[in-house]
Design a protein that fits this description.
This protein has one domain: L-arginine/glycine Amidinotransferase, Chain A (5-stranded Propeller). It has 11 helices and 17 strands. It has helices at 20-23, 37-57, 99-102, 108-115, 139-142, 162-172, 216-228, 238-242, 262-267, 270-277, 288-294, and strands spanning 7-12, 61-66, 83-85, 90-93, 123-126, 143-146, 151-155, 175-179, 182-185, 188-191, 199-201, 205-208, 232-235, 249-252, 256-261, 282-285, 303-305.
Length: 311
């Protein structure tokens, strides 16, 4: 298993806007009162296109799939929540908390990946029936994978159900490391909705906000797993996490890059940047509109494709 891939799928937005259904438990979303939905979409599309260009310019194979106008899917720009593509030619399909996000799941995309891009798909592991029991597992938003060591890190929340995590791990052969991660919301400690906003596992290092894990035993458990894999641990603060500094992904271009938003990059200290750049260069792009309205950042926009190519 490789930790990083050269191929990623991204969904080009057609109706991106503030999603009221996800705002219930995504404390990163903000209403941009000075923008109409059309202006929001236009700004998001510009950010999207610039980001794709930057990735392609360093040799990342970006598969861009256009969103459809109907049904209404304001968050389709974040495909990593509904699908994962694995090196054993299997696909994971995930249960989503917000009803209007369930419409993002499009099997026509799989046909495109096979017919137009030459990937091999042998089967689908479908976890979506958890929705019938009001349990959710939002893909690689909910789970951060160490593919080489077959470890799955999951911060349990309304959107990351522990039983669903266990089932995923059983199906795909990962060892689950479950914990609770919290953040301050109006003076209260509330569960972080997605694991990938507080940690990122790369090939030789990990970026993590350990301060979000309030329970000492759980923090030790996570630290132990990370230490045992030999990765350098680069810590970020809760303030930096709020600027999406945990929402990063390492991808393979002409060499490995750690990809993040401009907001995340600006929040890092010089020491943190140096620590990361000892391992690989940083690539960042401005995603201000997408982050504010969507409450997600660079990592959420990229669904990694580990599928094998057709012979």
């Amino acid at each position: 298993m490789k930790q990083i891939t050269n191929s990623i799928m991204m969904i080009k937005p057609v109706g991106f806007r503030y999603n009221e259904q996800t705002a219930v438990n995504n404390y990163y979303q903000q209403v941009l009162n000075n923008l109409t939905d059309e202006q929001t979409q236009e700004k998001a599309l510009n950010e999207f296109n610039t980001f794709v260009d930057k990735l392609r310019n360093v040799g990342v194979n970006v598969v861009v799939i256009g969103d459809t106008e109907y049904p209404d899917t304001p968050d389709s720009i974040f495909p990593n929540n509904w699908v994962s593509f694995h090196s054993n030619a299997m696909i994971g399909l995930y249960p989503m908390c917000a009803e209007n996000r369930r419409d993002e799941r499009r099997e026509d995309i799989f046909i495109t990946l096979v017919d137009e891009y030459g990937f091999t798909i042998e089967g689908i592991k479908d976890f979506t029936e958890f929705e019938e029991h009001d349990k959710y597992l939002e893909g690689t938003g909910s789970m951060v994978m160490d593919h080489v060591n077959m470890i799955c890190y999951a911060a349990i929340s309304i959107r990351t159900d522990e039983i669903a995590v266990m089932q995923f791990c059983e199906e795909f052969g990962y060892r689950p490391i479950c914990f609770t991660a919290n953040q301050d919301v109006e003076g209260e400690r509330m569960a972080i909705y997605h694991t990938n906003v507080m940690m990122c596992v790369a090939d030789t290092f990990v970026v993590i906000c350990l301060d979000t894990i309030d329970d000492e035993a759980e923090r030790e458990h996570v630290l132990e797993a990370l230490t045992e894999t030999g990765k350098e641990i680069i810590e970020i603060t809760e303030v930096q996490k709020h600027r999406f500094a945990g929402n990063m992904l390492q991808v393979m271009g002409d060499k490995p890059y750690l990809v993040m938003s401009k907001s995340a990059y600006s929040s890092l200290t010089e020491e943190q940047k140096i620590a990361i750049e000892k391992h690989c260069p940083i690539l960042y792009s401005s995603l201000d509109t997408i982050e504010a309205c969507g409450g997600g950042s660079a990592r959420c926009m990229m669904a990694e494709i580990f599928l094998p190519k057709q012979k």
